[in-house]
Amino acid sequence: MYQTTYHRASSVSDAVKVLGEAEDAKLVAGGQTLIPTMKQRLAAPSDLIDLRHIDEIKGIEVNGKDVRIGAGATHAEVAENQALAAVCPALCHLAAHIGDPHVRHMGTLGGSIANNDPAADYPAGILALGATVHTNKREIPADDFFAGLFETVLDEDEIVTAVSFTAPEKAGYAKFPNPASRYALTGVFVAKRADGVRVAVTGAGEDGVFRAGEIEDALAKSFEPSAVEGITVAADTLMSDIHASAEYRANLVAVMAKRAVQAANE
Amino acid sequence: MGVEGIGARLARKEDKRFITGAGRYVDDMVVPGMKHAAFVRSPHAHAAVNGIKIDAAKAMPGVIDVLTGKQLKDDGIGNLICGWMIHSKDGSPMNMGAWSPLAVDRVRYVGDAVAIVVAETRAQARDAAEAVEVDYEEMPAVTDAVKALEPGAPQLHPEAANNLIYDWEIGEADATDKALDGAAHVTRMRIVNNRLIPNAIEPRAALGHYDRAEDHFTLWTTSQNPHVARLVMSAFYNVAPENKLRVIAPDVGGGFGSKIFIYPEEVVCLWASKRTNVPVKWAADRTESFLCDAHGRDHVSEVSLGFDADNRIVGLKVDTIANFGGYMSLFSSSVPTYLYATLLSGQYVIPQIHCNVRAVYTNTAPVDAYRGAGRPEATYVLERTMETAARELGVSPAELRRKNFIREFPYQTPVIMNYDTGDYEASLEAAMREADYAGFPARREEAKKRGKLRGTGMSCYIEACGIAPSQAVGSLGAGVGLWESGEVRVNAAGTIEVLTGSHSHGQGHETTFAQVVAERFGVPIDSVSIVHGDTDKVQMGMGTYGSRSGAVGMSAMVKALDKVEAKAKKIAAHLMEADEGDIVIENGEAKVAGTDKTVPWFQVALAAYTAHNLPEGMEPGLKETSFYDPTNFTFPAGCYICEVEVDPETGVTDIVQFVAADDFGNIINPLIVEGQVHGGLAQGIGQALMEGCRYDPTSGQLVTASYMDYTMPRAEDLPSFQVSTTNTPCPSNPLGLKGCGEAGAIGSPPAVINAITDAIGNNNLNMPATPQAVWSAMQKSE
Ligand SMILES: Cc1cc2nc3c(=O)[nH]c(=O)nc-3n(C[C@H](O)[C@H](O)[C@H](O)COP(=O)(O)OP(=O)(O)OC[C@H]3O[C@@H](n4cnc5c(N)ncnc54)[C@H](O)[C@@H]3O)c2cc1C
Predict the structure, then answer these.
(1) What is the pTM of this model?
(2) Which of A124, B95, B474, B509 gets the highest tally of CB atoms within 10 A of its CB?
(3) How far does residue A109's CA lie from ligand 1's centre (Å)?
């Protein structure tokens, strides 16, 4: 790790202020992505602004079907939240399968979606739920938020403060873990509402998380695993790497979609 | 057996310090004035080094010095060597290229070290290492051994034309061809043994300390064999004469072979300490471990196994290409030859065997012994082929093996080894019983109802441990003898210290060696200490690898115990005015047999040291030393049966049952033996299902250089193992031990792959059988 200067922000506005003043500052939340990158000397921010002590971005609120999760909520807090489990257990399940206990007690929702790792789990959930991303500046629909591998529409001085959504009728998440890293080699989140089904796929897309339109259409007609049977996912926009070919990922998209529906119906 | 003697299931004495984080590893060592080193490493797989600029780095904060290979050469430090001479079949000696501890004009793999930076802190050393400017001129690279032999391939060393290190053979080629020509059936396979990265928990580290006043060096290092390190560094690398070089290998967190070898960093830290006049410490980070620890396996073999009309084996022919990486590591040459081809007879009567091995340079990390070293490769070749043959011949895999088992001992194979004893039927029976082999078809049917493909696979392995008879290995090219030393020191009040040349880096010697002493004298193991890993304490030793600590190291100790016991009996007889022949020592006292006369053990010891009343002419003291040179290898063998369920939708393999029935001869501590088997199985299953080192074929970059990309087996990947043992005691050593450290890693990979190929009905599957590999194989069979 290179030398860096640490700041503990007390509020979102405080963090924004330091962000503007420092030469090349980075926000740090759980540090589960940023710190390993710095240790490997692949990132060298001049300043680190710690968001973990800002109360206004913490907590999980559930009012009826309306859910608001602070950007600072850890994966463990989301996984274990009883009120959330009552309205959207699939998201708890997703959070419970990120990394290991250590990672889940440090890593945050805000950090995960801001980082937009193409193999991260949360982007699939946020996109399929049609959630809204709240920042210090604006509200961004999930459909607009993710912008390619490790890219989002966030400005340099923009901080994610929360994510909100209305719980769907049913939802399910099925993850096929990368054998080495246990990130998603392919993960599929399905959310069913009265007006349709949204299916989001992580881990597989060449440009990161994406919606699987064909599967959505089929599931809108019949929200059953069998509805996915027979759908061949095109491999040409999927990732190929040492862990999995595009063809294998295409197969996994269909299989995981089926299993996600099965989980949603249980 | 006493409660703490041979055969007792004791928890390990050393676990308290390991579990409580109180172990003392090389990186825990602090010497006054100590500074920190970082290595400048090649980012290229193959490049000429046209110059190195160190001025900017030298000016960085905290930097004490930056040293390069040229200075190392100027100081007369020698090249690293391979210590086992192999001759090609045309009689020519192996073609060994030069390996300078710091590359001078050429780098040959990503991670090859070109310079060392010594600085006040580790971070400063790293910062400065990045400021060293190396003028590389990139050259084409080759990472695949088969491709490296092809015409026009990039050439690594001027000494090795066509990258060929040797072209070696064993057995009769013509007779084997003839046997195969006359065979009723020949099973042919192309067998790939995947390259592995060892991944000991503790990364390698070295702390070199030159004491100017004494003109003396001390090296703390992560070594499995500190005495061999001292010998090699003195005799070949010109670091210092033996009496001026102390090597200490304290607690070492796993080795699996990767810490046998003498690496550049150890030599360079010692030399740099003299150059800079400060103690120099280096500890690898995990990336360096991936890049620079010696890798394992990486063979490609063409195999033909012939049978007569009665399904008896008539001959085996194997043609192997072995990837050696960019340089020849210390024992690399012996692995695909005498540790591999000599085991190709397996558990079977095979009248003719011929094996040809070509060893090849490539632009990858050096490859050397890794848990099993050659024997896993031999077992994989033979046991994959046997199982395949059974399928082709339409007979049960168990029957085919049974029909061909060696049943009379000693048995001389056509490939040097002379098996002393064994009972292969017994382990096969034990494994089949434990696995409920007969019930498999019903389990397969039941799995089918759940949408799962169930398969069973078997592997009957043999291996050679207890390396090795010195004269025999000397005649085969080994540069060292492979005996072991043991010294037993009884202290004046009766406690006992055993000094051994074996080295424990996870094996539990502090417990098992003490158990043997406890058994002998009936003293508590707590009164017995095991001393190892320091050339100033233990005079000489050959270290631990090849499952040799029990069969060879303990045997040396037993010989010393014999001498101590003989002298103690003389003293006891004298004290009790009895006949020496009537003395027995047990339960912590010496007794006159058939009487109630006794002397406590501590009084015998005390008498030896007060020397007030010793037999006429006897020297005071109670301390004896022995060297033990084995007369033969030992031959652990066993049968493993694996059952898997494959998810046809994803290709995920679940090992639902794994049975291991091993014959290790006698056993000192069953708990530790089971632990060794469990660990070995985890590594073998890791190789079969998960671990696969991959280099980019054009750039030569290691693409599996972290745990994000290199899959290690985890607890949740493994079933609860069903392990048991059968026993034919080894006749060649005093305790009847065969060794158990590598068996699990040797026997398990073919069992796993045989099970998966059985489940999916497609034999075309290489390791690691990742979900994607299994799924792809299934697509092809449809
Ligand atoms: C061993 C291991 C296993 C893992 N396994 C998984 C897995 O299975 N699935 C998975 O999805 N992830 C996995 N992760 C990643 C983990 O979930 C991270 O926690 C997450 O990706 C980043 O969250 P963080 O809070 O740690 O962010 P940090 O590492 O602190 O920051 C990440 C990035 O986001 C920015 N950032 C952080 N918070 C905000 C904010 N509020 N607004 C704007 N930008 C912000 C930072 O500046 C930085 O660029 C794993 C990580 C590790 C170390």
Answers:
(1) 0.97
(2) A124
(3) 8
